[in-house]
## 1
Amino acid sequence: MIKNWKSYALAGGALLFLASLGWLITHRGPLAPITVVTASVEQGDLRASVSGIGTVEARLSYAIGPTQAGRLLKVMVDQGDLVQAGQVLAEIDPVDLEQRIRATESAAQRAQQSVLIATAQEKEAQSRYRLARANASRYKALVAKNFVSNEMAESRQNEAQIAEAAMEAARSGVVAARKDAEKAGAERAGLIKQRDNLKLVSTTDGLVVSRDAEPGTTVVAGQAVFHLVDPGSLWVRARVDQAQARGVAKAQSAQIVLRSSQNESLAGQVTRIEMQSDSVTEERVINVSFVHPPKRLYLGELAEVTIQQENAKDVLNVPSAAVKKQDSQTGVWQIAEGKSKFVPVQVGIQTLDGKTQLKNGLKKGDKVIVYSSAQLREGMKVREQQSSD
């Protein structure tokens, strides 16, 4: 009897153990259903927007520097100064340029005198040629009447040819003198232009944002002494996730929050979407300008940009976390008879508070899986857990 009782006890213990093991395997082990959190499809208004982080930059910036090497003699402006187009910002030491200009002025005056002298000589040569030609014609007529000899007529003809050659030489002298005068004038104009280039002049109305050289510094051609920007062209060069930037377009309104004024939101507008995206960070660069720029902006300051997109009225929506990709299809996971089922859907706008518009595939009140303790596949056993929402 005691042996039978022990046998029953062992059999009962074994059954209890197997039952416990089976329960563990099916409820907590590899055969246990995957725990999921669900949410219901809702209907309401959505306001789409995307955000990004960027820095304050200038669309129009200018580097002002010399066109020739030299030593800075004067610097008239500093960072933060507003300048006007044509304003002299700095001067470079001319060294002996003024003396060279005066020398070319003297050379130009001498060249002009040479032109006058050559012109007078040409007129004299023309007069002598006309006289010699007239004498040659007269003696030719007298030879025909036998009043003078052929030798005398030939002599007058030779004198006319000599006078003509002298006239041509004088004419060439005038051309050469004029070229010399033009050369002297061009040299003088070139030196004056070179002297004018020693003054660094602002090409536009703008704000000086950097002063990169001081008086006494030797600078070379092309080296920037100042950097200017157009204050009206300041914008935020923001980076937005490519996945969210699909609906961003020019002229959309935006809100800008500067790092230095985190409690103040400034109105902005999308001005340009750069064609070159960042393939490494998978971001698109959006330039957002200020509708009313603040009085003082600092280049390089961090700013957060929120771009407002279209609104959707009375539309179906689900938490964005519920939208998944399965075999290149967009859809959501649902529970069908205790198992996971993928339902393809067409999505619309997304909001910053984590909601996504559904255009088709589901109806209001349907439940979708928002979170799962493991990656889902079609037909997997799942067990719903109360959503924290």
## 2
Amino acid sequence: MPEKKPCARLFLDSELIADQMIKLDRDQSHYLAQVMRVRSGEEIALFNGRDGEWRAVVSNVERKAVTLACRSRLREQADESDVWLAFAPLKKTRIDFVVEKATELGVARLLPVITQYTAAARVNVERLSARVIEAAEQCERLTVPSIEPPCALIELLSSWPGERTLFVLDETGAGRPITEALMECAPTTDGSFPPCGFLIGPEGGFSSSELDAVRKRAFVTTVGVGPRILRAETAALAALACWQAIVGDWR
């Protein structure tokens, strides 16, 4: 008979060890007690991005405080994809969609970038962090992507690690086909692929001066995602899906 699946999955930013008693904070307690309606004895899966995934048992349920008993490790911590996504912020529901789906597609770091034509320059990092945690809990990954504070495009380019290829989606059609560029990524000696990132511009595209600045960087490869004009969130997910299929963990 297959083992019963935990009734919920939670991210905790604390150490996870066997026989540890964990008192959840008010929000997580409310979620388990009032939304999921858990009862004593039910199992919960826990992860913290460092110690793998753990099985915990609900020890006590109160309206504002749920206590768990951490029992045993379900999965060891494993290496995950090392891909970053830099993107021009979008309006609320659309940026929520981007960070949620990017989390599901394995992104390790999210970097909002302010460009000349960015329509929504204000970014609520705390709110987006909560969305990312929810997405990581749902998709059963073992890590949670980090979200950086917004920065200007020139700051991103200046601080970008030279050994990390930056694939910039170029809506002018001057970039190489993304699949062609990705297939030329050479694996390292252990069979893994080198770190990379993607930069997605705003709805209005990059300005000509921004494209000039981008193309001058040795670590940049400009790419295209087909003959159609895609919305920014569609372009981001298309690029990540191509990456996962060609060099990521879909292989």
## 3
Amino acid sequence: MYQPAEDSFLICDAVAKLKNLNNKKILEMGSGSGVIAEALINNHVDEKNLTLVDINLEAIKNLKQKFPKSKVVRSDLFKKIHGKFDLIIFNPPYLPTDKKEDKESKLATAGGKIGSEIINRFLKQANTYLEKNGKIILLTSSLTKRIDWQDYEKKILEEKKIFFEELVVWELTKY
């Protein structure tokens, strides 16, 4: 399970600034420890309106315990997701795969050979699950190469330079 770090906190900063979320249906992909879900609840989101998704069984057990009123789903991206959402949030694994990294750690941090494979799968599928006028909040890194933005209009919500990379939180909408 991914432990919160600078990227998680940057998304939390962006989420804290979002307005009118109280009656919105929200999906958080890759919920991990639940730190972003907590930021949403602190921003007046009703826990019942949250769908929390992760591929990691340990994360799922933790999320069910921490957020008993939320829908918690173990899924590889959208495979087991039904319905549409007003907001989809994703702090994806975005680093290029490191062959020395253990399997558990790779699930949380590695986005594929060049870092964008999981992001590109997500972007290709996400529009199907967005309500009309829905939005996506997505974090990327300057280390992630060749992101296929599909037909999304992009707006930067937050950015931060840390160590050897720049993190950006994007708001995406369909044209």
## 4
Amino acid sequence: MTLLRDHDLARAFDHASQTYDRLTAMNPGYRADLLRSARRLRLPRGGAGLRLLDLGCGTGASTRALLKAAPYAHITAVDASSGMLERALTKPWPARVRFLHLTAEELHTSGQGPFDAVLAAYLFRNVTDPDAVLASVRALLLPGGRLAVHEYSLSGSRAHRTLWNAVCRGVIIPAGTLTGDRDLYHHLRRSVLAFDTAPAFASRLTRAGFADVRTIPVAGWQTGIVHTFLGHSGSPSAKAAVS
């Protein structure tokens, strides 16, 4: 099962950036589910005085969700694809939101942070070493800092795996082929099949040092296919924040 990685994957996203928003708009609940994940961070005071990281921001859909959930926060949004960032920057943003061209692996040496919370949407399937990236994320969080991961991570059920394959073959890959991005959407299908199941990723988060890890399936057709994973960086004082 061949997957795109690193520069090859960034280039594929660069190419897809012009049509990416139109294709994701075809997915019922795509933006609403991102907003639910951002709100599950339960950030106080509308985010006033908080510094947040949107890791793998793409064209800004997850950034918009984070901004709606915490309208007064300062948000740093990063992505490895320059094309996706260019699309994000065509949209209106308050001065408290900034975009940076960085890979997840570069974060720990970038001088960014610390952060009060991190949202990572559709990211961890696409990194070569998720454990190393999780360690970097935890190091960038303040004590008690919160993490929400919004990710394609199958439940482990054969029915959910079969549904994912059917949707990819019937809708996602044909739509991506029409836009000239067949390789990227084949990668999407394969990366989900190759990635951790939801219980396995929750265990990975715990091994990485995150505390009070919870897994919440999204609603609708993606139940058992997309999950929100919540945790915090280990401070006892933050335990109630993700309960």
